[in-house]
Specification:
The complex is a heterodimer of chains A (215) and B (233). With 215 residues, chain A is of the alpha/beta class. Chain A has helices spanning 5-13, 28-31, 85-93, 129-135, 197-202, and strands at residues 21-24, 43-46, 50-53, 76-82, 99-102, 106-108, 113-114, 138-142, 146-147, 150-151, 153-154, 169-171, 175-180, 185-191, 209-210. With 233 residues, chain B is α/β, with parallel strands linked by helices. Helices cover 20% and strands 28% of the residues of chain B. In chain B, 52% of the residues are buried. The chains are: A alpha/beta (215), B alpha/beta (233).
């Protein structure tokens, strides 16, 4: 059984460590905040200018001056601070954020990431994604293993890149891969329950080694 | 020296010309200078280059200036919520320069601080770096980005005093403070205006030197783009 979106988010939440400052992207990564393990305290950064992002407000308490990077209304916490966009990306670019969890269209076995543009289609823009993958200490991609049965884990990305050699880990509905940015490539670390090695091989273009216990 | 003006029309009088470059604060619709954008529309000024993280949405924010075709070029990081924007762009009626959001913020910060260029890791090995100088520092590759300034910066602040000292509120701060530093002239619309001395000097986000004109309104539309709530448990 492949993981559901919530199970993928739950698996990604295991990458959080106590005291981490974390940026979560839009989509499945946002769900990670529902699965922060007990006993672990993390501060969520929203790149529009907030650290210590709280949950959605109760109805009637929405504040147009308090939104996250997805433009959704949110709330503040006792730990919250606000800052301008330049300082926000100073945090990102300066390597002060411990972990970025974001979605992707394609990831290559060398850690290249494409998630902002499909040529010839309507282009929305990269927002803060290029800054996050260039500056955050550790980058985890959370995505479906395939798109319309086409593999998304490739030898080389054929879409325009968001960053070159920037991804450290990929969590899909089928399993977990580690990528060594230093160049030793991709390794399959875990399989989702009842997912076979053959199924993963058949749905993956990228080359990868098998981690401990899988080979 | 009086920096306060009775309305947006007076606050922008004498500052507008066709073909000018305007920075507009805000992230999505949060913290946008909505009264000053409405006045840009009313003025009919055209062929604008607008530097703003987003382009508003259909019918709100900078979307209003797209409807009237007053914008020639946008410098932005994300324009995904705007159908008219996509339509004008695909028809070739609108120029677009995408900047990564952090690079955009830093280009504005640099421009306001008199720094003509800087090097960043963001965008190395991507389309963003094409045609730009790259250089290695301490074994890492960086791309050179240029500082940005504008003929006019329009910003929205929560509170101002008559000296032009500004305080922003929550995530409505976003690009407003950096843009205030990078306009040759900066005009701030504010929700509260108090006499100089009524804001604790330690709590001021933008010192008055960066703000030439202030206009105060009691009420603002402040539309919410994505209203999300949770159930009371």
């Amino acid at each position: 059984m492949a993981w559901t979106r919530d199970q993928m988010a739950q698996r990604a939440a295991r990458e959080l460590k106590d005291g981490f400052y974390v940026n979560l992207g839009i989509g499945i990564p946002t769900l990670v905040s529902n699965y922060i393990p007990n006993g672990i305290s993390v501060q969520l950064q929203s790149e529009n200018g907030m650290l210590g992002m709280g949950p959605f407000p109760y109805e009637g308490e929405e504040d147009p001056d308090l939104i996250n990077a997805g433009k959704q209304t949110v709330t503040e916490l006792p730990t919250t601070s606000y800052f301008d966009s330049a300082q926000s990306f100073g945090m990102v670019r300066g390597g002060h954020i411990d972990l970025s969890i974001l979605g992707a269209m394609q990831v290559a076995e060398n850690g290249d990431l494409a998630n902002w543009m499909i040529p010839g289609r309507v282009v929305k823009g990269m927002g803060g994604a290029m800054d996050l993958v260039a500056g955050v200490k550790r980058v985890v991609v959370l995505m479906e293993h395939t798109a319309k049965d086409e593999p998304k884990l490739l030898h080389r990305c054929n879409l325009p890149l968001t960053g070159a050699g920037v991804v450290d880990m990929v969590i899909t509905d089928l399993g977990v891969f580690q990528i060594d940015r230093a160049g030793s490539g991709m390794t399959l670390l875990e399989l989702a329950p009842e997912v076979s090695l053959q199924e993963v091989r058949g749905k993956t273009e990228a080359d990868y080694a098998l981690g401990p216990g899988l080979g | 020296m009086n920096k306060t003006y009775p309305d947006a029309k007076a606050a922008l009088a004498g500052l507008l010309h066709d073909g000018m470059t305007v920075m507009a604060g805000g992230f999505g619709l949060s913290g946008i200078p909505e009264k000053l954008i409405a006045e840009l529309k009313a003025s009919g000024v055209k062929n604008l280059t607008v530097i703003s993280n987003n382009a508003g949405i259909d019918g709100a924010g900078l979307g209003l200036l797209l409807e009237t075709r007053q914008i020639k070029k946008m410098i932005s990081s994300y324009v995904g919520e705007n159908k008219l924007f996509a339509e004008l762009y695909l028809k070739g009626e609108l120029e677009l320069e995408f900047n990564p959001q952090g690079t955009l913020a830093e280009r504005i910060r640099a421009g306001g601080a008199g720094v003509p260029a800087f090097f960043t890791k963001t965008g190395v090995g991507t389309l963003v770096a094409e045609g730009k100088e790259v250089r290695d520092f301490d074994g890492q590759t960086y791309v050179m980005e240029r500082g940005l300034v504008a003929d006019l910066a329009i910003v929205h602040a929560w509170k101002a005093d008559t000296e032009g000292n500004l305080v922003f509120r929550k995530t409505a701060r976003n690009f407003n403070p950096v843009m205030a530093t990078a306009g040759r002239v900066t005009v701030a619309e504010v929700e509260h205006l108090v006499p100089a001395g009524q804001i604790d000097p330690d709590q001021i986000h933008t010192p008055g030197i960066f703000v030439q004109r202030i206009v105060h309104y009691d009420t603002y539309e402040k539309r919410i783009e994505q209203r999300t709530v949770r159930k009371r448990g």
